Amino acid sequence: MNISQIFEDHVMQTYGRFPLTLVEGQGARVRDDAGREYLDFCMGIAVCSLGHCHPRVVSAIQAQAAKLTHVSNLYFTEPQGLLAQEMNENHIGLPGKIFFSNSGAEANDGLIKSARRYGHLRPQQDGKPRFEVITFKQSFHGRTLGSMAATGQEKIQQGFDPMLPGFRYLPYNDIEGLESAISPETVAFLLEPIQGEGGVNTATKEFLDALAQLCEKHDLLLMFDEVQAGFGRCGESMAWRTISPEINPDAISWAKGMGGGVPIGAFWLSDRIASDGKTKFSSLMGAGSHGSTYGGNPLVCSAALETLREIREQNLPYQAKEHEKYIRETITSWGLPVITEIRGKGLLLGISLNANLVKTEDGETPALKVVRQLIQRGLLLVPAGPETVRLLPPLNVTRSEIDEALALIYSTLSEY
Ligand SMILES: *Cc1c(COP(=O)(O)O)cnc(C)c1O
C-alpha cells in the first residue's frame, strides 16, 4: 500500500505534509509504518495533552462508545453537563456558561457571534448595532469565514476575499494607539494571551491590563482565544493567568488540548451583568441563537472530562512551569549563536532561529528546515511562523524525555 499515492489521488492537497505515515502512539512516542519510533513534541499541535493513548482517556472513550455515542443536543446527556461543571469549577474558576463546539475555529465563531449579540443589546448612540471586533497582527483564530476574518495574517486570508466585515487588526503588545482605534462600532477585543501559530508571542501584563481597562471604560467585551494555550499548557490552568491573574475576561474559547485527542472545542461567556444592569453576558446566546449537531456529544465529552480531571489531579500545570524553567536554563546554557531567543510559557515554547545562520533553498523557511532535520533524527516538532520552532510536548512528559529531545535539538542546532 502506497499511502502517499492514495492521498495524492483522493485527499485534497490543502496540507504540506511531512513524508511520514504514523500508525500508533503511546505516551510521548509515535511509530511510523516502517516501525521507526519518534519522540513526539508536536502532539498533534498541542492536542494530546496527556500523550498518546493515555489509559484514562482510552478507557473513557471505550466505555462511552459502548454506552452512548451521540444523541444530539435535543436531550440532556451526563458527560456534557459534568464536563461543563469540571471546566467552570476547577479550571476557569469564574461563574459563566459554556457552549460546546467541535473545533477552535467554531468556538471563535461563537465568540464573534456573541460579540455581535452584545452589539445589539448595547448599540451605538444612533441605535445601530455595534459589531466590530478588534484583533491583532500575527494572530491565528482559525479557518472558517468568521475566524479567518478575525485572523490578523494576510497569508491566511489570501484568495478568499471579500472577508466578513467587522474586524480590525492592531499590533500585538502595542498599547499606544489602542484607545484611539476604538470606534463607535467597536464591541470587543479578541486575542490570544500567548500567540501560538504566529510565532509564540506572549502578551505583556501591561498590554492585557490596558485592554481590560479599555473594555471597562468603553463597554467592550474582553475575549480570550485560549484554543492552544489553555488548560494547563502554559503553567496555569488558563494562559492569561500566567500573565495577569486578576483579569476577569468576558468570554473565552478553547479546543486543542482540552479533549486529550478527540475533536472538541468550547466557548464560555461570563455570568457578569452587562452594562444594562440586568443581562448576564452568558444569556446573550439564548434559545435558538446557536447550535451544533455534534457539539458536546457524550463520546468527546467523556474523553475531555477525564483529560481535564487528570490534568488537575496530577497538577500538570505546575509541572509545565517547572519543565519550562529546566528547558530554558538548558537551552540558554548552550550559548548557541543560531538561537536568538526562547519565547512562550510552560510547555508552549518557541525557539527563535537566527535566519542568517540557517541557509535554506526553494523558499523553505529556516524553521521548516530545522523541523525536517529533527524528524530525520527522530523528534517531531512544529514550526510557528518562518523562524521559530515550537515545542509542544505532552503535559505529563518526563524529565528524561525532555533530556532526549534537548540532546537531539542540540546536536542539530550546534551544526549551524
Ligand atoms: C488552532 C487554533 C485555532 C483553530 O482551531 P481549529 O480546531 O483548528 O479550528 C484557533 N485559535 C488558536 C489560538 C489556535 O491555535
Automatic annotation (TrEMBL):
CDD domains: OAT_like. Pathway: Amino-acid biosynthesis. Keywords: Amino-acid biosynthesis, Aminotransferase, Pyridoxal phosphate, Transferase. Pfam families: Aminotran_3. This is Aspartate aminotransferase family protein. It comes from Luteolibacter algae. Gene3D superfamilies: Aspartate Aminotransferase, domain 1, Type I PLP-dependent aspartate aminotransferase-like (Major domain). One of its GO terms (molecular function) is transaminase activity. Its cofactor is pyridoxal 5'-phosphate. Belongs to the class-III pyridoxal-phosphate-dependent aminotransferase family.
